[in-house]
Design goal:
There is one protein chain. The protein has 209 residues and is mainly β. The chain is built from 1 helix and 10 strands. An 8-stranded antiparallel β-barrel has the order 1-3-4-6-7-8-9-10. The N and C termini lie far apart (38 Å). 35% of the residues are buried.
Length: 209
């Protein structure tokens, strides 16, 4: 089992943050999960990304991002356990601020994108924090390099409401920590390259017509 800790996923994975009860139409932003509109949402790719960080040989914490993430979120505030998130992360769209490292990450030492160009996450359970309905635990299956492992994402609901472009949005943050060796990525461990990778997920989801 992969251990994950609380965010400051989204990216993505905050479908769980809606308490049961009637949906209330909103004319302004709300931070009350029960007031979020039910329906199907798609991630705004311009405002959704996954930031990763890993211990670089003990000298620093190296940070990069995955962009152009795609995700569909079905929200049912009357039955949060029925909500569902499916996300696709294009591994070729990684930005480490180093062209050489971006290219190395595509090889079989890391993502092996020639054979596995994308990672996917599919949620399968949602647990709302009974003490704080804006926080939830989402458990799902992460598939990376053809290996599927259970992953838990700690999610925080930010707000929902009208946004620029005359759309209705719901925004979330999430955080997780995975062990890369469990997905067959062991390059550099003998030199001290970190085993645990922290994922910070940011997502703004747009309600579909």
């Amino acid at each position: 089992m992969i251990h994950l800790r609380r965010s400051a996923l989204a990216g993505v994975t905050a479908l769980a943050l809606l308490t049961s009860g009637a949906v209330i139409a909103q004319s302004a932003a709300t931070r009350v999960p029960a007031e979020v509109r039910a329906g199907t949402y798609k991630l705004d790719a311009d405002h959704g990304k996954i930031t990763w960080s890993v211990d670089h040989l003990g000298f620093s914490t190296y940070i990069g991002q995955f962009v152009n993430v795609q995700a569909d979120l079905n929200i049912d505030p009357a039955n949060p356990s029925a909500s569902r998130l499916i996300a696709t992360i294009p591994l070729t769209d990684v930005d480490s601020n180093s062209d050489a490292l971006d290219q190395h990450l595509q090889t079989s030492d890391f993502f092996d994108t020639a054979n596995h160009p994308a990672a996917t996450f599919v949620s399968r359970s949602v647990t709302i924090d009974p003490a704080d309905p804006t926080e939830a635990t989402v458990i799902g299956d992460l598939t990376l390099r053809g290996v599927t492992r259970p992953v838990t994402i700690e999610v925080e609901f930010n707000q929902a409401g009208p946004a620029m472009g005359n759309v209705y949005k719901a925004g979330f943050d999430g955080e997780a920590t995975i062990k890369r060796s469990e997905f067959g990525i062991t390059f550099g461990q003998q030199f001290g390259l970190g085993e645990e990778v922290t994922l910070h997920i940011e997502g703004e989801f747009v309600l579909q017509p």
